[in-house]
Amino acid sequence: MIKTLQLRPGRERSARQRHPWLFASAVILPKERIEPGETVRVIDSRGEFVAWGICNPRSKIMLRLLEWDESRPVDMDWWRGMIERSAARRGELSNSADTDAYRLIFAEADRLPGLIADYYAGYIVTQFLTAGALRIKNELVDILAQVFQPKGIYSRADNELLALEGVGDTSGTVYGESPPEDLIVRENGLKYYIDLRSGQKTGFYADQRNNRRITARYARGKRVLDCFCYSGGFTMACLAGGAESVTAADSSREALELLERNIALNGFDPDKVRTVEADIFQLLRGYRDQEEKFDLVILDPPKFAPTKASLARAMRAYKDLNLHGIKALAENGVLATFSCSGGVSAHDLKMALAWAATDAGCEMQIIEYMTQAEDHPLRLAYPESEYLKGIIARKIG
Ligand code: SAH
């Protein structure tokens, strides 16, 4: 029997506008015990149907809304239908001849809360990020296997996030073959080794696919500095785009080892690439002191502000980083700067860049805005799905 939850008076507004989250303060829990991740029917304070949702009494986000049509209750057929629709929306990518690494399901942004599925050359990597998705993990794996027919599915637990839900998961192969240790994927015609099991994110930053292509247009004949390079997504794109040299820097030795293997894999001249294991903030200060300059500087740091609460501190970090990035630019140099912080808007990133330019005593012009790739869609009813922002700016004096 599906239980009914009532929203407190006045709290149905965002729900009716289809924002998928409701916090504990908006929800009246019934007397019966609700298991973390249980499907519920949600009504407003007048008793009218609002949506079908999933409740987790242990989570601050107590209710996640999935379906606003009362005639479509959320059962396993519903999940299957939504997964099929999400798959159909990736049609262009799944037919692409030069890319086989992309996101199939982007959780709330695809109206599938808590479920991430990434496709990597025949394998799928999943993440179950909410109690609701975890509760039906086996069923969801079966559906993914049927819909996508992958060679194997590997599930990665993100227990830091799951702790917020009061649950835990384990990593491992959940269907078919275990993905090989040195799986190779293709993106924009370039090849990359990826580490699905212990690499960052689910092994690759597919959300930067289009931005790598855009940024590489400014690389021909140039000296490039790829900061926070990870496995070299931007480095490979810039080499393919005709860069004279690339300095690739990251604090992770494993990332740089992966990058070096990727250079060999694509047959690029290793003499064109210098890898540097360093903290970028210190590295850029060193370049300032040595007056070392680059024609194209890429700044793709990790999240500084996961939420709006940490915005002020994050803005100082973005400003500082961009200031030193600008200082490393040669005359007419180009900066490709990114933020993947949900709490930082495109406007915020532009502000940080403007402050940085002022402090650096130079003038910059913005020449392109960038966002996350199309397989990481931005659902308008859920503004939190917009997280990646990028700017290409040129130093003009
Ligand atoms: N540009 C990459 C993705 C970057 S992810 C791509 O296109 O695939 C962020 C990277 O920053 C990670 O590889 C992480 O190891 C690195 N990192 C985090 N903090 C750092 C710091 N202070 N200095 C240098 N690298 C850092």
Give a written overview of the molecule.
α7 runs parallel beside α8, α10 runs parallel beside α11 and α11 crosses α12. The chain has a 7-stranded mixed β-sheet, sandwiched between helices. A 6-stranded mixed β-sheet has the order 2-6-5-4-1-3. With 397 residues, it is an alpha/beta fold. It folds into 3 domains: 65 residues, Archaeosine Trna-guanine Transglycosylase, Chain: A, domain 4 (Roll), CATH 2.30.130; 101 residues, Transcription Regulator spoIIAA, CATH 3.30.750; 191 residues, 3-Layer(aba) Sandwich (Rossmann fold). The structure holds S-adenosyl-L-homocysteine (SAH). The site of S-adenosyl-L-homocysteine has 18 residues, from α8 and α10.
Task: For this entry, give a set of tags.
alpha/beta; 12 helices; Transcription Regulator spoIIAA; Archaeosine Trna-guanine Transglycosylase, Chain: A, domain 4; 397 residues; Rossmann fold; binds S-adenosyl-L-homocysteine; 20 strands
Q: In short, what is this structure?
A:
The protein is an alpha/beta fold. It has helices at residues 13-16, 76-88, 91-94, 131-135, 137-148, 159-163, 209-216, 233-240, 253-265, 280-290, 311-327, 346-360; strands at 3-7, 21-23, 27-28, 38-43, 49-55, 61-67, 101-106, 115-120, 123-128, 152-155, 172-176, 183-187, 190-194, 223-227, 245-250, 273-277, 294-299, 329-339, 364-371, 389-395. Strand 17, helix 11 (311-327) and strand 18 (329-339) form a beta-alpha-beta unit.
What share of residues is helical?
25-40%
CATH architecture level-2 label of the largest domain: 3-Layer(aba) Sandwich
Q: What name does CATH use for the topology of the largest domain? A: Rossmann fold
- Radius of gyration of CA atoms, rounded to a whole number: 23 Å
The average pLDDT score comes to: 97
> Numbering strands along the chain, what is their spatial order in the largest sheet?
16-15-14-17-18-20-19
Relative strand content = 25-35%
Number of DSSP strand runs = 20
Report the major sheet: 7 strands, mixed
Small molecules bound: S-adenosyl-L-homocysteine
Instruction: Please state the oligomeric state of the protein chains shown.
Output: single chain
Tell me the overall shape: globular
Q: Spans with pLDDT under 50 lasting ≥5 residues? A: none
Structural class: alpha/beta
Gap from first CA to last CA: 68 Å
What count of helical segments does DSSP give?
12
CATH superfamily of the largest domain: Vaccinia Virus protein VP39
CATH top level label of the largest domain: Alpha Beta
| Total discrete domains | 3
